[in-house]
Design goal:
Layout: H1 2-36, H2 41-54, H3 58-86, E1 94-98, H4 107-112, E2 116-118, H5 119-125, E3 138-141, H6 152-158, H7 174-188, E4 194-198, E5 204-209, E6 225-230, H8 239-247, E7 250-262, E8 265-274, H9 282-294, H10 298-321, H11 327-345, E9 348-353
Parallel strand pairs: 6-7
Antiparallel strand pairs: 1-2, 1-3, 4-5, 4-6, 7-8, 8-9
């Protein structure tokens, strides 16, 4: 069993070396370019220090590459470490290979779903299929298993002992809803994205203006606040939105949008997302355990994972439309992707006309 742990550690080191090499090449190019521009050695050093502090240029490439590599490798380690804990350290204990039941399960893992095997065999076969280190399958001790496809909701109902309890989401108060509605009306008329943080008592805690297609998510200032903002093109919540929901102490993340109502008319709509039961999902629990073992933030890893899954679901929906989908078709595809993410991962998602407030 130590072999698997060593393999993952080596994988992390290899990912670090690979991304460092790529960043080094880009860094050499940047230095040569500044030298051709006639900059002195001191000016080059100052420019590199500023880029390093801001995480820009080759340093941003290095950071992004490492982050992407670690996200996949950590999910694999979580599955292995969890299996070891559930087996009590006895690799001969028999259990069952379980997939998450989502549409993103690879063919190799799908064939193993429900098969009985020892914990040692699970370790040996984990990460060897098409999904590689991004495998989120898990091992459960005992002989009871679902042999067909299933949703997380069905698993939670049949095996509540596998999951932790959750206090659920507490909706904001009436005063907050009034303030949110007022800010959303203002956001709809804006030509750039604007993000507003509203407390449970209805106070505006922060407001930030961004660009046409993005805005910096502000600090919620206090737990339980609601983030509401606008998408100028009118689309449903983005991957950045679900990442912010997971990584910051917001009760909800909302955004305004619009749909094509025909004959050039637009119908304003509003979207809202909340954590719901997402933390009960096996993938999220695995990431939680591993993150704590590695001393990193579980919310960052979970937020990145959900954003990636949403992008995968969205790409699949767009592919069904065909080449050159219209803006409204892309919005419909994103809505379908959110419905799937909500159904399979437990994230709360709602869409409503802006008038129904």
């Amino acid at each position: 069993m130590a072999t698997r742990g060593l393999q993952i550690d080596v994988g992390v080191g290899a990912a670090f070396d690979r991304n460092a090499a790529q960043a080094s090449i880009s860094l050499d190019d940047a230095i040569r370019q500044m030298q051709r521009q006639g900059r002195t050695r001191e000016q080059v050093q100052q420019a590199l220090q500023s880029a390093f502090d801001a995480g820009q240029g080759p340093f941003a490439q290095f950071k992004a590459g490492i982050k992407k590599s670690l996200t996949g490798l950590t999910s694999q380690r979580v599955s292995i470490e969890t299996a070891r804990q559930l087996s009590g350290g006895d690799s001969s204990v028999m259990g069952v290979w379980m997939t998450t039941g989502g549409s993103n399960v690879c063919p190799g893992c799908a064939k193993l779903h429900g098969q009985q095997m020892s914990e040692a065999e699970f370790e040996r076969r984990h990460g060897t299929h098409e999904c590689g280190v991004n495998c989120y399958c898990f091992w459960m001790p005992g002989e009871t298993a679902e042999t067909g496809a299933f949703t997380m909701r069905e698993v939670m109902q049949e095996h509540p002992e596998w999951f932790h309890t959750s206090s659920g989401d507490v909706p904001p108060g009436v005063a907050a809803e009034q303030t949110i509605a007022e800010r959303q009306a203002t956001h709809l008329a804006a030509a750039i994205e604007v993000a507003t943080v509203v407390s449970r008592s209805g106070r505006v805690l922060a407001e930030v203006s961004g660009a046409e297609d993005r805005v910096q998510v502000p600090d919620p200032k206090e737990p339980g606040a609601v983030l509401t903002h606008n998408h100028v093109i009118g689309s449903p919540p983005s991957g950045d939105d679900v990442a912010a929901l997971m990584q910051m102490p917001y009760a909800e993340v909302r955004n305004t949008g619009w749909e094509d109502a025909g004959k050039g008319a637009r119908k304003p709509v509003k979207y809202r997302i909340a954590k719901g039961s997402v933390d009960l999902h096996p993938e999220m629990q695995h990431l939680e355990r591993l993150a704590r073992q590695l001393g990193v933030s579980p919310d960052v890893i979970k937020g990145d994972r959900l954003a990636r899954v949403l992008d995968q679901f969205y790409a699949a929906e767009v592919a069904r439309v065909g080449p050159r989908p219209s803006l409204q078709q892309r919005k419909t595809a994103k809505h379908a992707a959110w419905l799937k993410l909500s159904r399979e991962y437990g994230v709360l998602y709602a869409k409503d006309d802006i008038q129904n407030r």
